[in-house]
Amino acid sequence: MTEIAIEVEGLTKSFDGRIVVRDLSLKVPKGEIYGFLGPNGSGKTTTIRMLCGLLTPDSGRGTCLGYDILTQSDEIKREVGYMTQRFSLYEDLSIRENLEFVARVYGVPNPRAAAREAIQRLGLSGRANQLAGELSGGWKQRLALGACILPSPRLLLLDEPTAGVDPKARREFWEEIHRLAAEGITVLVSTHYMDEAERCHEIAYIAFGELLARGTANEVIAQSGLSTWVVSGPDLQHLAEELHKRKGVDMVAPFGTELHVSGRDKRALNAVIAEAKKADGAHHWTRGQPSLEDVFILLMSNAKDNYA
């Protein structure tokens, strides 16, 4: 049987009388990379912090790494590595000095050796004596990850870890995350990037405190029930405006020189497309596959803003 790292039921959290997360239930297997997606202010970070006992829910129950999230938060914290969006290490210390300092704070045996091992693992050897403040965004993220894993946590929390990082650095970062997961570390990560979502073993989409979808990327796409057509040709903006008005069209989204036209009622959508083809021969229509981004745009458009 798969070992479960996190299992929670009915988590709800409010701030100033406003519900930020409502009745959330999840299971996360050990060694899995679980991605949380959703718009800003949707409750992703609050959810992640509740799942691991860093924030007490108003109601609900659950366990994390075998500990009760309501009564054993101190035990959980000792097993967690937390990487925030903002770089939080000392910019006037070198990579080596930062890692040695973190190792000492956490009581890691032989801090110098531990820092040296982390530097080698993350490909930072040539930069060990470089000041952290001089690093690019990608190198800073590697350093922050190295600091997170120094105490040998069983759970990693990554809050939009690659925001502002170039594609090559993001790919290398995710390769390391998958290596850590293969070693049995469970990873919870929030992200806005669709390609990163597809790198997760499972994903959950949260909008305005509500869990709207969860599963593998392919399962979430299949659950949406979306059918998609791709159209190219002249004056796509005008065409998009016209299609938005038609019953059976749930979403029209531009992608470069094309439009993705999607709907959950396949028969109604096909009728709209057939009529559009007959009325205008200037555009080229092909059946497409709904993307994860198509699904999330649709989910977002149908979600109710809890701040409205």
Q: What's the layout of helices and strands?
A:
Layout: E1 4-15, E2 18-29, E3 33-37, H1 44-51, E4 59-64, E5 67-68, H2 73-77, E6 80-83, H3 95-105, H4 111-121, H5 137-149, E7 155-159, H6 167-182, E8 186-190, H7 194-197, E9 202-207, E10 210-215, H8 217-224, E11 227-232, H9 236-244, E12 251-255, E13 258-263, H10 266-279, E14 284-288, H11 292-302
Parallel strand pairs: 3-8, 3-9, 6-7, 7-8
Antiparallel strand pairs: 1-2, 1-4, 4-5, 9-10, 11-13, 11-14, 12-13
Helix pairs in contact: 3-4, 4-5
Entry keywords:
308 residues; alpha/beta; six-stranded mixed beta sheet
Task: Provide a brief overview of the structure.
By secondary structure, this protein is α/β, with parallel strands linked by helices. It has 11 helices and 14 strands. The strands form 3 sheets. It has a 6-stranded mixed β-sheet, with helices on both faces. Strands 2-1-4-5 form a 4-stranded antiparallel β-sheet.
Low-confidence stretches: none
Number of H- or I-type helical stretches:
11
Q: Helix content range of the residues, please?
A: 25-40%
**What is the averaged pLDDT score?**
89
What sort of overall outline do the alpha carbons produce when their principal axes are compared? globular
Strand order of the largest sheet: 6-7-8-3-9-10
Write the element-wise H/E pattern from the N-terminal end onward.
EEEHEEHEHHHEHEHEEHEHEEHEH
Per DSSP E runs of 2 or more residues, the count of β-strands stands at: 14
Largest sheet: number of strands, sense, barrel closure: 6 strands, mixed
Straight-line distance between termini: 44 Å
